[in-house]
């Protein structure tokens, strides 16, 4: 029961942060022809080795639920890249001093940031058909990232990202 409470609390904390996803795809693609996939052998996600394993496990699970199967002779390949960036706080307080007198004026003003800078992570997932049209589907997710998060929270966050990303595959056009 204690583990269940921790999991629910973790999901609530993680779910407070929004996940933004942008999609793009080739409108001429017949997505019904794709049944098997694999990852590039030289896949360099930019994530830690453990986070890469977590991400691939979650992605495999979602692809299987969409009746896409991992294969040595795939219909398409998956490439994953990521980057982290610092998002400065948009809040600041202005402090200024000035003076005037006898037609002379002057002033100095500075903005002091309020709050801490936040780390965001961008994960890009590309579906590539090497035998025909090349890149045919792409999703780019952006979300807050805590490099000190516990493994359970990291996995929960990656699961939420994959769920949101895969919610638009295959696209309805």
Structure classification: alpha/beta
Q: Fraction of residues in helices?
A: 25-40%
Gross morphology = elongated
Unreliable parts: 9-16
The CATH architecture can be named as 2-Layer Sandwich
Order of neighbouring strands in the sheet with most strands: 1-8-7-4-2-3
How many domain modules?
Answer: 1
CATH fold-level name: Double Stranded RNA Binding Domain
Counted beta strands: 8
CATH class: Alpha Beta
End-to-end separation: 44 Å
- Give the biggest beta sheet: 6 strands, mixed
Number of helices: 3
Strand content: 35-45%
Mean pLDDT, all residues: 84
Question: What keywords describe this structure?
Answer:
elongated; 173 residues; 3 helices; alpha/beta; Double Stranded RNA Binding Domain; single chain; six-stranded mixed beta sheet; two-stranded antiparallel ribbon
Summarize the structure in words.
With 173 residues, the protein is of the alpha/beta class. It has one domain (16-89, 118-166): Double Stranded RNA Binding Domain, CATH 3.30.160.670. The protein has three helices and eight strands; from the N terminus they run αββαββββββα. It has a six-stranded mixed sheet with strand order 1-8-7-4-2-3, covered by helices on one side. A two-stranded antiparallel ribbon has the order 5-6. α1 crosses α3 (151-166) and α2 (49-65) packs parallel to α3. The two termini are 44 Å apart.
